[in-house]
Design brief:
8 helices, globular, TIM Barrel, 244 residues, alpha/beta, 12 strands
């Protein structure tokens, strides 16, 4: 894919695709379509909380992922909790699967096996809550993944490089959630100064009128700007155009 050098790149992802979140996932995708966002990235959880598998909704997954970039998003999206006074507790609740659990290699292989049964070959992996140990990068390379992300960077695994693209997203609990709702549209002018903008949505966002209101404000700003809406993979491929 070729991009015009004067244009900025935009990626919007929808996280946590699994059976119990399917209704809200479709709501978010429909809202994006209504606002001219036809190219989204979908993060699929193969075996959500060890209770529900994507194979149970195979036909819905085929419909949902048509013409979309599909990312492996952990295996169960569930983990042990952080210690009591660990600051990272404010960002996630027992979801740091690829940071706190030990059988990471097996989790990747099991997730890929479910994807294989869905006829999906993912180019990218994103850890739940964007948290992972350094060894995960090696494990991803061994399995042929081309990129991963955290809250600040997109990592080009093939060339051992990274691009500074801080993600604009809503929190999901407590003070962090309230602060993210307040600041979401106010942070957009700052991140939009970069040549790449990354927005991440979660299923619970679809049920919160304030989050939808703030998201629509940002989408209105996006419509007025000169963006190429694209996948995370093509942002990596276009790295020669990016000087962040």
């Amino acid at each position: 894919m070729l991009f015009r050098k004067t244009h900025k790149l935009l990626n919007i992802s929808i996280h946590d695709v699994c059976p119990s979140h399917l209704e809200n996932i479709f709501k978010l995708k429909e809202l994006l379509l209504e606002n001219g966002i036809y190219n989204t990235t979908l993060l699929l959880i193969p075996f959500y909380h060890g209770k529900e598998t994507l194979l149970d909704i195979k036909s819905e997954i085929l419909e949902l992922t048509k013409n979309s970039e599909v990312i492996l998003h952990g295996y169960t999206h569930m983990s042990k909790d952080f210690r009591k006074y660990d600051y990272r507790r404010i960002f996630t609740n027992k979801e740091a699967e690829f940071l706190l659990e030990g059988d990471l290699s097996q989790r990747l292989d099991k997730g890929l096996e479910i994807f294989k049964n869905l006829n999906i070959i993912p180019k990218g992996f994103v850890a739940p809550a964007w948290l992972f140990r350094k060894e995960v990068l090696r494990l991803l390379k061994e399995r042929g993944f081309l990129f991963t992300t955290d809250r600040r960077y997109i990592y080009d695994l093939e060339h051992n490089k990274k691009i500074f693209v801080p993600v604009l997203t809503f929190g999901s609990r407590g003070f962090v959630e309230k602060l993210s709702i307040f600041s979401f549209d106010k942070m957009y002018p700052l991140v939009s100064r970069l040549k790449v903008v990354r927005i991440a949505l979660h299923p619970s966002d679809a049920s919160n009128p304030l989050k939808i209101y703030k998201l629509l404000k940002v989408l209105d700003c996006i419509k007025k700007e000169d963006f190429d809406i694209t996948s995370l993979y093509h942002i990596i491929k276009a790295k020669n155009l990016i000087k962040n």
